[in-house]
Structures
1.
Amino acid sequence: MKKPDDDPLRAANSSPRCTARSKRTGLPCKAPAVNGWTVCRMHGARGGSKPGPAHPNYKHGGRTKEAEELRKAVNAMAREAREHAA
Ligand SMILES: [Zn+2]
């Protein structure tokens, strides 16, 4: 006789569920959520592109998060210098 804890289907059925709701019926999705996510594979878990040079639209690096932050910092310093000079 099998113990209830040995049943793989029981473990699968008790896994966390997707939190998405149907647009039409308003009912919950009920599909198992992807590990580390609150939604299932059909509702947006995983996917997306890698950041930086690995991104398919990467051209020259002038629009990376680091470059944008550096530009903002330089512009803020220039603004401050202008305000002090006037
Ligand atoms: Zn789902």
2.
Amino acid sequence: MDELSVLFCRPMAGYAGHDRFEREADVVDWMELDAHVIGAELVVEDEPERALEDVPEGGGRTFLYRGVILSEEQYEGLYEAVLDRGDTLVVDPAQYAGALYVPEYHPSFADVSPPTRWTFGTDLDDAWEAARELGEPPWLIKDHVKSAKEHWHEACYIPAGASRDDFDRVATRLIELHGDRFERGFVIRKFLQLATTGVRTVDRRIPDEHRLFFWRGELVAHSPYHEVGEPLTDTAPFEALGTRVDSPFFTIDIALLERGGWVVVELNDGGISGLPEQLDPHELYRALVGRSGRGY
Ligand SMILES: Nc1ncnc2c1ncn2[C@@H]1O[C@H](COP(=O)(O)OP(=O)(O)O)[C@@H](O)[C@H]1O
Ligand SMILES: [Mg+2]
């Protein structure tokens, strides 16, 4: 298998290396991996060729993408531009979308996920109708990729007893907050009582959630998702989940339930998945590189 190179796609506005990729970029340097940085703004503005201008043409390198969330179309643009230069990205565009958009992966995970409905577009009647199929609230609402969880009560959580007006207010606020990054349509899910870590913020109790990294079908790293919480002691129930997705690099976030058991909260492409605070970047990169032709 080819040696792995890393393609960081980081926001360049005010760039000083201080963003969510800083920690792992340091580790990648320390490990002396071949790594390059491109400007996220150009990729998002559909100018991937310009973004790649300063990256030396490698002739057959395989790049691990680590960067901002791109739409399927933006990722495809970058993928093609990388190919034109004689290199490739580990994850192809169909695989990228397959682990990013809820309607793409939910059918393969319905048995281990909260009951879920989705719509296309921003029509509130459609969204309400879809939500009603879940029974009574509480519900959680997001677009096909992201929630506005930082605005929990305003734009994410629909409490028990919510009226149609309440629903419309939250859905409208989500559209406003996501602006032109609103992805495709609404996703509405039945809200389940997650087990908690015992720590709470002003908005909510921090749930016992975990991010699992899968590389070529294998669970290679995991960590509590939040800054608080203990690591999973038994990963056996989750290892087989890796075979449900056709992508070489993706993450699955799972949460423990208050009533016992667990659910899949969401999937993400591995390249855009943030490394939880508690996950040592060495651990992840050693696992990826060690399985890609260079020993560590
Ligand atoms: N169905 C659900 N029931 C209870 N809590 C949920 C549910 N779905 C998501 N959450 C909580 O909301 C958070 C944000 O949801 P998530 O789907 O991960 O959105 P995002 O894409 O913005 O990360 C999750 O980390 C989890 O704590
Ligand atoms: Mg999430």
